[in-house]
């Protein structure tokens, strides 16, 4: 029996807290080597274990190590988390969390790993270029702002890749290419994804008191927002494809009527595909 009123609302809220937290914890556990490297290096700098002179190089070392392990841990785990978010956005809110997560983890592991290597290299190249133009080449410092925009663009395309790898059956490079095309071709959705996810991440990192959100909610909330935006693009593309198919079928019918030839069902069905 479904609860109504205030108790029903509280029950639904508690259900969503459970869904988001369990999914986020699974993501953290499967990304543990990456999380451990980032957390330990960050805490070493924050607590003063490392001197200020060595802090910069120490953090660079940490990010390099994290970048090496990310394709094998963080990327497959994030794809699995997006697989759970996909169920929620498509209305299957009661889908079993553990089964859905680990099935997506297994099914998308190889593609996520390959894409992870490519994305890590792209991010590394852009970050190095940003540092070069922003610090060493003073006359071309304005170019560094271009790399900030490209980094944001690449980040949104990564969210779209995670959404597509759990939604489509495509080759890895085709997924990456289409993720970039969707990101560039749908700027308003891309800006929406960047702003909304950026706000969630900023809130989670803005205060030590709010950092508890990272192991329990941040990742799953970001995944839900990113897939919701992607699914909006997907539904709009589906509607456009259906309208184009209907227009093609109507055009074929008119041509058949003009020459007095009846249009058979098989031809009409083929036109609708």
TrEMBL record:
Q: Where is the composition biased (Basic and acidic residues)?
A: 264-273
- Residue ranges annotated as transmembrane are 21-43, 63-89, 109-130, 142-166, 187-205, 211-231
| Keywords for this protein | Membrane, Transmembrane, Transmembrane helix
Source domain of life: Bacteria
Q: Where is this region: Disordered?
A: 251-273
Pfam families according to UniProt: DUF624
Q: Which residues form the signal peptide?
A: none
* InterPro entries for the chain: DUF624
State what protein this is by name: YesL family protein
Question: Any keyword DNA-binding?
Answer: no
């Amino acid at each position: 029996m479904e609860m109504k009123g205030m108790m029903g609302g509280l029950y639904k809220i508690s259900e969503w807290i459970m869904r988001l937290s369990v999914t986020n914890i699974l993501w953290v556990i499967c990304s543990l080597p990456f999380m451990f490297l980032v957390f330990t290096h960050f805490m070493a700098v924050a607590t003063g274990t490392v001197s200020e002179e060595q802090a910069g190089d120490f953090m660079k070392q940490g990010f390099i190590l994290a970048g090496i392990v990310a394709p094998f841990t963080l990327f497959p785990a994030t794809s699995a988390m997006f697989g759970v978010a996909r169920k929620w956005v498509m209305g299957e809110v009661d889908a079993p969390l553990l089964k859905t997560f680990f099935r997506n983890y297994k099914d998308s592991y190889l593609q996520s790993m390959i894409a992870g290597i490519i994305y890590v290299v792209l991010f590394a190249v852009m970050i190095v270029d940003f540092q070069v133009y922003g610090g060493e080449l003073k006359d071309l410092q304005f170019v560094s702002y271009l790399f900030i925009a490209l980094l944001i663009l690449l980040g949104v395309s990564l969210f779209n890749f995670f959404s597509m790898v759990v939604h489509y059956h495509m080759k890895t490079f085709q997924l990456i290419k289409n993720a970039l095309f969707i990101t560039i071709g749908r700027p308003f959705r891309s800006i929406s994804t960047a702003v909304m996810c950026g706000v969630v991440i900023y809130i989670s990192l803005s205060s030590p008191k709010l950092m508890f959100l990272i192991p329990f909610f941040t990742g799953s909330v970001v995944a839900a927002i990113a897939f919701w935006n992607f699914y909006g693009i997907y539904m709009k593309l589906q509607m456009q494809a259906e309208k184009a198919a209907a227009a093609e079928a109507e055009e074929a019918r008119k041509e058949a009527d003009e020459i007095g030839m009846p249009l058979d069902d098989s031809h009409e069905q083929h036109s609708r595909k």
